[in-house]
Specification:
The protein has 278 residues and is α+β, with helices and mostly antiparallel strands. It has one domain: 4-Layer Sandwich (Nitrilase/N-carbamoyl-D-aminoacid amidohydrolase). It is built from 5 helices and 18 strands. The protein has helices at 17-33, 66-78, 156-164, 189-204, 254-262; strands at residues 3-10, 38-40, 81-83, 87-90, 95-102, 108-113, 119-120, 123-124, 137-140, 143-147, 169-173, 177-179, 207-211, 214-217, 220-223, 227-229, 235-238, 244-251. The strands form 4 sheets. Strands 1, 2, 3, 4, 5, 6 and 18 form a 7-stranded mixed sheet that branches. A 6-stranded mixed sheet has the order 9-10-11-13-16-17, covered by helices on one side. The protein has a 3-stranded antiparallel sheet with strand order 12-15-14, with no helix packed on it. Helix 2 links the parallel strand 2 (38-40) and strand 3. The radius of gyration is 18 Å and the shape is globular.
Length: 278
């Protein structure tokens, strides 16, 4: 049995990037002081959610930069593994919605480029981000973690690949909420958001943590509701719509028990799954 304490930073963002970063660093410190071994920030945590507009003056930056250097220092100072939410990154190949991962000694273990990019009213992300092409699992001092970002959460294929790559925990830095003037005719969005990720946790015998932002930003109302499910879909912690540090203690050993008892992976039939990739 190995227990890992997670700290999810549920934040409200403002226009000034330096204020968002300062708040994130304070909340990381709070999570660590409350015993968190691993802390995760929300999607695009250092800015307002600019993709709700078709055009914005916000520009991508290369990584490393002053923000990632501050995150590295925070991980080392607090002795925690840190999933740095996501940032708007410019590379030689394009611009990406990028998650960074830091070990407890401050080393940046790598990054993940968001693969699934939405393009809907209030979520004009294809105007800004190219699609990533790889899924990564990071070996950290507290265990093997996978990171996907927001819209990725609706795709079971991505979660399954993260599991097959050996992850014990899966994190979704997120920016999701309601859009003024856009109805929820198909049903309650938040309920569906929670349900699909609970399914990922169960079908993959993996801890799933989603970290959302909160507050009203122009036409967007982010509902918060960050949560952690264990490897059989039991809710370990959930947040309301206020800023907070959400803590949850996970038993990584539960994965072995579930895999032994239910055999979800050993009974797979990959030869029959070819239609998925067409």
């Amino acid at each position: 049995m190995k227990r890992v304490k997670l700290g999810l930073v549920q934040m409200h963002m403002v226009e000034k990037r330096e204020r968002n970063l300062a708040k994130a660093l304070r909340m990381i410190g709070t999570a660590a002081a409350r015993g968190a071994d691993l802390v995760c920030l929300p999607e695009l945590f250092d800015s307002l959610y600019f993709p709700q507009q078709k055009r914005s003056t916000i520009e991508p930056k290369g990584i490393p930069n002053s923000t990632t250097k501050a995150l590295s220092a925070a991980a080392k100072e607090n002795g925690i593994v840190l999933v740095g939410g996501s940032l708007y990154e410019r590379t030689a190949r394009g611009s990406y919605n990028t998650a960074t991962v830091f070990d407890a000694d401050g080393t940046m273990l790598g990054r993940y480029h968001k693969v699934h990019i939405p393009q809907d009213p209030g979520f004009y992300e294809q105007n800004y981000f190219d699609s990533g092409g790889l899924y990564n699992v990071f070996q950290t001092s507290v265990g093997r973690i996978g990171v996907l970002i927001c819209f990725d959460q609706w795709y079971p294929e991505a979660a399954r690949i993260i599991k097959l790559l050996g992850a014990q925990m899966l994190f979704y830095p997120t920016a999701i909420g309601t859009v003024a003037g856009v109805g929820q005719s198909e049903g309650d969005w938040q309920t569906a958001w929670e349900a699909v990720q609970r399914g990922h946790a169960i079908s993959n015998s993996i801890v799933v943590a989603a970290v959302n932002r909160v507050g009203v930003e122009k036409d967007m109302t982010f509902w918060g509701g960050s949560f952690v499910y264990d490897q059989f879909g039991t809710s370990l912690a959930s947040a309301d719509s206020r800023e907070q540090v959400l803590l949850a203690s996970c038993d990584l050993g539960l994965t072995t028990d579930i895999e032994r008892g239910w055999g979800f992976l050993r009974n797979r039939k990959p030869k029959t799954y070819g239609a998925i990739s067409k």
